[in-house]
Amino acid sequence: MGEKKALLSIQDLSVQYISKDAGTCKAVNNISFDIYEGETLGLVGETGAGKTTIALSILRLIQSPPGKIISGKIEYKGEDILKKSKHSMQKIRGNEISMIFQDPMTTLNPIDSIGDQIAEVIELHDNISKKEAIVKAGEMLEIVGIPKERYSEYPHQFSGGMKQRVVIAMALACSPHLLLADEPTTALDVTIQAQILEMMNDIKEKFKSSIMLITHDLGVVAKMCDRVAVVYAGEILETGTVRQLFKNILHPYTQGLFDSLPGYNDTSSRLKQIDGLMPDAANLPPLCKFEPRCPYSCDRCKKELPELMDMGDGHFVRCLLAKERGNK
What we know:
alpha/beta, 8-stranded mixed β-sheet, 4-stranded antiparallel β-sheet, 10 helices, 30% helix, globular
């Protein structure tokens, strides 16, 4: 990325969940990536890939037990978050780093007005008076396209798309440097989804924020992201700029994600599915995690562990056959 400065740097992060019934579930396995100032990084993959666990690790919100960060570093502005005190993390959460959760109803309190909920966040983190917080909360509602006159209304009076706007207003209320967005538009129809994504891009420019966008939708990645990391069974299988991945797919799993996109492969009216299921995190394959589902699997794949290889210009792939596939 040249001289660009990493706002967040994750190095060899591993997270496990341990229970009597399931045993040890390896949710995240030695993941490393950077998020640079002013960029949007997309984390793409199926449900259960470990994307949300990565986001919760950044905020130190992994519930323990059963979850535990086993190893790694999460450096924010050059300092390891994992070494910070609880008090220091409370200052970072919401203020420096905020998160938009997938379901707005898990974030919003049904018995408080939406305005008061935003004002409470502002008052807590900005150290200003309640009166000032109320004024700023009204301004935040306007920024996300909700008239401030609706300040005193309750969550049940809003549609799904409007609730998500409220959640975004709460997440951005203290002008965070890094926004973690976990499937922020999944439950919304296509028209509302487009409005929310456009609004998030506008707000990113307004607040000069960086975004880590968690999604399973490559169409959303194309609209929103500068770079993308494809996550599978707790590992990054391919990462690079959006242009690199869209123009030169190197991993069979990435190819499978694209083939399942409507309109991507115009030679057939039928969508292609990736055969099989993601492996159980409590019983992962010992070598390549995708090998049991891979259409290109060979004897070598059953004997060697693939490392993340640099294919040039910051395009990395975890596949033993990547060079041969890339030359085709």
